[in-house]
């Protein structure tokens, strides 16, 4: 049975003469129809993920397709049980995705070869091809393509420096890369070629999201789940042999439940079962569990006595000093 809500993932590199005005008009329209999500608009295009009822998302698609230059914008759709976002945010940015380069890359002029899901699957199975995950490390840890290189980065802007530091493994090799919906790869594949690291660079057209829905691949060769930047956090991709590859932060058991550490000063994303979340007060370390601003303690309205009791159960005390 079809679900009543939809999540739209989309982007397009397209010159926008007045992005500030477009931002204001976009915000007014999305609020009028009750859509929720996060949209970035810049002089070089639009990038967004939004959620709403079928009616709301259809209204939004029609609105965007009515804008000059966006008639062919590709919306990737997922069914959902409810809104995947809490609010609506539309913001003007200098770039819809940034590498913070002095000499920027324009994907409309330079980008890697687009590979259909079946072509990308064939490339993964080629021993002479390097598969690069162009996302952040925490996204990779939840799920990735079999054999993909994991970048040691927490932000896309760090990827060029990481590649330069490790370029020997990529030099003069065939490289294929992937990201969630394709926006990061369109930019980064052009950068790889420009830097002379390789002129044989391909990218998964439509990103992981499209690969998982492809009728031929059915998400095969994907391990774990895909990280998404909304309330769902993790979505399944592999329809052939789904798996959980991530481990619980505390006991090492299979776990793909990502949560933010309860300490606001830490806020690290960690894998944690509901049981261990309660046991360890959602704190990834002793210092985080004892943080006076611990959000789990606040949310659960724990008294100081209950807080101390929970810590005693794991051999800690609220009043002892800890090493972070």
Biggest sheet details: 5 strands, mixed
The radius of gyration over CA amounts to: 22 Å
From the spread of the alpha carbons, the general shape counts as globular
Strand content: 15-25%
- Structural class computed from helices and strand pairing: alpha/beta
Q: What string gives the helices and strands in order?
A: EHEEHEEEHEHEHEHEHEEEEHHHH
Number of helices: 11
Beta strands, count: 14
Give the terminus-to-terminus CA distance. Answer: 49 Å
Q: Average pLDDT value?
A: 94
Helix content: 25-40%
Spatial ordering of strands, largest sheet = 4-1-3-2-5
Unreliable residue runs = none
Provide an overview of this structure.
The chain is 28% helix and 22% strand. It has helices spanning 19-33, 54-65, 117-124, 137-142, 159-165, 183-194, 207-213, 274-279, 286-289, 295-299, 304-313; strands spanning 5-13, 36-42, 45-53, 75-80, 88-92, 113-115, 129-133, 143-145, 174-178, 201-204, 222-227, 234-236, 258-260, 269-271. The strands form 4 sheets. Strands 4-1-3-2-5 form a 5-stranded mixed β-sheet. A 4-stranded parallel β-sheet has the order 6-10-9-7. Strand 13 and strand 14 form a beta hairpin. It is globular and about 60 Å long. The N and C termini lie far apart (49 Å).
What's the layout of helices and strands?
Blueprint (H helix, E strand, L loop, with lengths): L4 E9 L5 H15 L2 E7 L2 E9 H12 L9 E6 L7 E5 L20 E3 L1 H8 L4 E5 L3 H6 E3 L13 H7 L8 E5 L4 H12 L6 E4 L2 H7 L8 E6 L6 E3 L21 E3 L8 E3 L2 H6 L6 H4 L5 H5 L4 H10 L11
Parallel strand pairs: 2-5, 6-10, 7-9, 9-10
Antiparallel strand pairs: 1-3, 1-4, 2-3, 8-11, 11-12, 13-14
